[in-house]
Amino acid sequence: MPLRPDIRSVLVIGSGPIVIGQACEFDYSGTQACRVLRGEGIRVILVNSNPATIMTDPDMADATYVEPITTEVLTAIIAAERPDALLPTLGGQTALNAAMSLVEAGVLERYGVELIGAGAQAITAGEDRDEFKAVVERCGAEVARSVIAHTMDECRRAVEALGGYPVVVRPSFTMGGLGSGIARDDADLERICGTGLAASRTTEVLLEESILGWKEYELELMRDKADNVVVVCSIENVDPVGVHTGDSVTVAPALTLTDREMQRLRDIGIAVIREVGVDTGGCNIQFAVDPATGRIIVIEMNPRVSRSSALASKATGFPIAKIAARLAVGYTLDEIPNDITGSTPASFEPTLDYVVVKVPRFAFEKFRGADPVLTTTMKSVGEAMAIGRSFTEALQKAMRSIDKRGAVFHWDGPAPDAAATAALVERAAVPAEHRLLDVQQAIRGGAGVEELFASTRIDPWFLDQMVLLQEVAEEVAGAPALTRDVLALAKRHGFSDVQVAALRGIGEDTVREVRHAFGLRPVYKTVDTCAAEFAARTPYHYSSYDLESEVAPREREAVIILGSGPNRIGQGIEFDYSCVHAAMALAERYETVMVNCNPETVSTDYDVSDRLYFEPLTFEDVMEVYEAESAAGPVAGMVVQLGGQTPLSLAARLKAAGVPILGTSPEAIDAAEDRQAFGVVLERAGLPAPAHGTALSDEQALVVAGRIGFPVLVRPSYVLGGRGMEIVYDREGLVDYLARAGAESGGAYANGPLLIDRFLDDAIEIDVDALYDGGELFLGGVMEHIEEAGIHSGDSACVLPPMSLSDAEIARIRRSTRAIADGVGVRGLINIQFALMSDTLYVIEANPRASRTVPFVSKATGVQLAKAAALLMAGETIASLRRAGRLPGSDAAASDPFDPIAVKEAVLPFRRFRTPEGRAVDTVLGPEMRSTGEVMGYDVDFPRAFAKSQAGAYGGLPGEGTLFVSVADRDKRAIVLPVARLAELGFTIYATAGTAQVLRRNGIPATSVRKVSEGVSERGEMTIVGLIESGAIDMVVNTPKGQGARADGYSIREATTSADKPIITTVQELQAAVQALEAQLRGPFRVRSLQQHDADRTARRAAREVRA
Q1: What span, in angstroms and rounded, lies between the C-alpha atoms of 277 and 573?
Q2: What 3-state DSSP class applies to 227?
Q3: CB 3.0 to 4.6 Å from 694: which of 1, 36, 529, 753, for a disulfide?
């Protein structure tokens, strides 16, 4: 069936902000879908609140709404745009839930909008636990024995019915396993079911028999209207059942199934997708197989494009989202050509002649006190994927792609003795971040496969592969000389030059010289979807120590762009956005070559750049790609400033090895990081910086801090996302910080000296993104932070254009920015953080690279900064870009009173991280970044824009109800006016005794409540935590009095996070919230697309130029 003629416009719902369990894989799938639908001549209307995505670029859709994904907003957009159909299967759980809410509210019926991709019935059949159970049983397959519960009493009865503990708890309609867990006793049951019932859209949880320790598999399938079904990919989890698939090391294709078992999984999968009724798109089905009996259980299914779909697409080269979009508008699989071969249709199932391994990346170090045990609730913040000709090669490449200290197999020091080995085997029984490393060290200490299988339940085949790695390592270490055969053996099993060097006790450079002398270099194979049966037309490569290379020669000059590697807090999708924009901008003049290892991103889509190398971002791997490309044709240079800290940290070594670096030089990058060199730049420009010093020992640190005066900001050298950064208020606090930093791997001084600055309390923090070509500056955007200095810029809400800066102050900021860009030697992007305090503009830091605010500024101002930066790096000037129409005539220094206001709000993952006792971790923000994503509120004035940002990030502020206030003494005067206004708006005010007294003296009725330390009174009056837990409080204002969990407020903030109520922790945010509530009361949100905003802005500019 060809394209449906009745679908002329489609509304696509994105997945909103990046959260754990729902990351940038949905930006990748949504971007693909938008491109395909527009290619078919369909008008695309996109809604997504996340400004950091490629998907929300104005040229991806015909109408782009960066608005909160709420029923009210979606209804307004449908009323304005009148789409023929709604495609909800490409925006994760957020989009599915939003679509179901529209169906239930009767909105789609009222406006005649058809749900395509998956109907409401199919969504319910896949998501509703009871219905799904019936579907599986009708297909002649089994689900785990289970009971549905809606209350705690029903949960307790369910445990008895299932024959006792352990039981697995899974809420309906949630994402990334939120609220799920394994209950081993009554206390666990109370905690997990309580959270699960609260997290579920339908207050429903499923309790099922434990299948812990079984093998876990996934199938990725697609089906069309003509009932053709293809199995795109099988994926096997190395960890057994009990660890969320997003947190497990996974491998594709499945490696330990017999042919008969694989066939059985296929049959069940195909029967289930037919029975559920997914008839135009992809779905993902998870299975458990009992290793003892072979019994197969269907765990669950997602009737949408999922996290595994992105992995399956990258692993096979089969673009699931692109094909799902075409199926949704009427095509069948046999009518859609395979992009990679060009000669086969999409109804050909992909075949792999290589192995793909995915390894998760965690961020437990960001959340002190968080429970590091891996369970069915997803906790990883990113992942890396690698491709090899064998499991061992792919596994070792994936582990070094994680780009984190202590994440690769090592043979340092003596092998563990018998006692240490026994301890390692015991520790490996509990799934945690470094489980595979513990297994590797246990094997090194002599542990056997049977003993490790009994402890971990990891399939013996995988354990045997790890024994094989140990044998290879012993051969490399014990060989009389490093011969060609020994080195080739190590390389075929994925050992890096660094690992070989450590085993031999020589330097990495020596190993590389020996390897090159033997002529041992990797060749690059192609991902072709068909195991080389047909020729591949797209150059999508991976390295292997094999025989023939498949890198085609070329005539045009190439530019190599280094991506940002796996997502992590502090280095996420925003950097991928800049890399993709560079590939787009440079494609006209150069052959673009992308190097990256993150399967979730748009940059690793095979048609974003001319060539894609799926490789780790280490010096060895990047150098080999450079040399392979240099052999294929001329290389103009490499771009390292757009992918965050990962490629930047390679810049100096790459340049020393002879690689031309485009744009800002590695020396200039170092000058901005080096305190003394940067101090000289500031002195020459006559710009003040806060008093600062550096220390290389704990004694020095205490002396420097004493000289500068507390409070101080302490941080290690060369970090991104404020890793290890803290504000310290006194000497004891500094001693505590140094003790904790010293206990981490490498200690506090691993990357260089500890940097200590005077902390500016109560300063306004300002963020600037600008372009510089060596002579002229283009000021991209000036953002004012809503919270005061001291909160990491990635976690602070900020507003653009700035709310309280005069044109004269912005002109001063522009002059300072130009002086710094010139002094450092920038060619391309620079991000500078200033602090304005009592009329002095201090420079906090400068980063001569793409920053995480570039996408937000680009969306808010309509100027694509990353594209302009890439062209500047390749030799263009700001004047030439203006002539070409890529930059407007005026920059952010020229104020436009009619410009809309954009507010960026951070989205924080505190609900995912709990202490081992089940309490949420502390939600106080500081200079270390903890947010995973962001949303943008965009409207005509600040109150409305801030209200939208809160709706997008947290589901909005309550319009009425009960407010609890407890603030530090220094904030008591500042809260009187905002709290008085909330009382006028009808809120009931509760406060702790001290705050209540201040409010009452100012004429605000406030009821005082008991502190936690006071306990429940004899008359049964609850403490504030009791009131929050019982749902009596709708919003909490709590400013912390000091650092750490000792602070009173921790239990208040913990209870509020657990109850999923809004919590405000700074006075500035409270003032903004009051303005937003007043805006909400003036009527529903009004919506406008980015394209409409851009057209208005262009018209205003043209009118100004005519007048001038």
Answers
A1: 33
A2: coil
A3: 753
